[in-house]
Specification:
The chain is an alpha+beta fold and 323 residues long. It contains nine helices and eleven strands. The protein folds into three domains: 125 residues, DnaJ domain (Helix Hairpins, Orthogonal Bundle); 74 residues, HSP40/DNAj peptide-binding domain, CATH 2.60.260.20; 92 residues, Urease metallochaperone UreE, N-terminal domain (HSP40/DNAj peptide-binding domain). Helix 2 runs antiparallel to helix 3. The longest helix is centred in the first third of the chain and has 17 residues.
């Protein structure tokens, strides 16, 4: 605490004090991408800025930590700070003390040499004991990282190695490579938790956790609905009329689908079990083939004549149900 400069987490992220969680998260993600060590290799300034952004978000993303900071100010950023003890101390000494906005109450702490000494005595020495004198160890801060996956990686599962700025017990941060196992079927916006891969704790407590927020890049042909995968497949008029066997891509390779004779445009064919793989959380999804009939363009006079000959095959009163 003494001699260590605290940074206002709101100022670090560039958000207002009444900012909601989405605003805070968006600000963090933007700054984390901008100053991430992978984007700025060997840049000490960017590395320090990334560390500050991560520390600020660890405070403002946690409702309890944010509330404590708003109420007590910089002192609440100390790893050993206990909000309840602070309230008891405030009541016992008859006044307030600096809050997050810097306003000071009228309490006197002369016997303790000022507020820093008082709270150093209350929390630094007392943090090792809980109710009834039992040993108490505070866990380290949680860390959040963004994980960008390709569509197939998210659907089938994979392993990714990422570099994070992991807070250390002395208030600093170190770069650490972490392997994250991605389970099959993780969705865009999902979150993967790695216990014990967050910040180090002070006083021998357990480390915090790492929360990897998943962002899935869209696929050029596949799209996902729940555990099912959809694929638009173009076919010719001849294939629609006479039927055909068409080769298509799937998540795990090529497959052949049979187009029945007389298939209409917009028909949907199902390949069972070819969607998101089966997991303990749910059954395998299906692959739906959405048929789209493509008609030829740039017909010459002879071609048009041939098409006209097909008029005898037209379905009578084709549009009678339209009203």
């Amino acid at each position: 605490m003494p001699g260590k400069t605290k940074r206002d987490p709101y100022a670090v992220l560039g958000v207002a004090r009444d900012a909601d969680r989405d605003t805070i998260r968006k600000a963090y993600r933007k700054l984390a991408r901008e100053f991430h060590p992978d984007v700025n290799p060997d840049d000490a300034v960017a590395e320090e800025r990334f560390k500050q952004v991560s520390e600020a978000y660890s405070v403002l993303s946690d409702p309890d930590k944010r509330s404590a900071y708003d109420e007590f100010g910089d002192i609440a950023l100390d790893p050993n700070f206990d909000a309840q003890k602070a309230r008891e101390a405030r009541a016992a000494f008859g006044g307030g003390f600096p809050g997050a906005d810097g306003a000071e109450g009228g309490a006197s702490f002369g016997g303790f040499g000022g507020i820093e000494d008082l709270f150093s005595n209350l929390f630094s020495q007392g943090a090792e004991r809980g109710p009834g004198g039992r040993p108490f160890r505070r866990a380290g801060v949680d860390v959040e990282a963004e994980l960008v996956l390709e569509f197939i990686e998210a659907a089938l599962g994979c392993e990714k190695r990422v570099t994070i700025a992991r807070p250390t017990a002395d208030g600093g941060a170190r770069q650490e490579a972490v392997t994250i196992r991605i389970p099959p079927g993780v969705a865009d916006g999902g979150q993967i938790r790695l216990r014990g891969k967050g910040g180090e704790a002070v006083g021998g407590g357990p480390p915090g956790d790492l929360f990897a927020r998943v962002r899935v890049r869209p696929h050029p042909t596949f799209r996902r609905e729940g555990r099912d995968i959809h694929l638009d497949v173009p076919i010719t008029i001849r294939e629609a009329v006479l039927g055909a066997k068409v080769e298509i891509p799937t998540l795990t390779g090529r497959a052949t689908v049979s187009i029945p004779p007389g298939t209409d445009g917009g028909a949907r064919l199902r390949l069972r079990g070819k969607g998101i793989p089966k997991t303990p959380r749910g059954p395998a999804g299906d692959l739906f083939v959405n048929v789209q009939i493509r008609v030829p363009n740039n017909l010459d006079a002879a071609d048009r004549e041939e098409v006209e000959k097909l008029a005898c095959l037209d379905v009578p009163d084709l549009r009678r149900d339209l009203g």
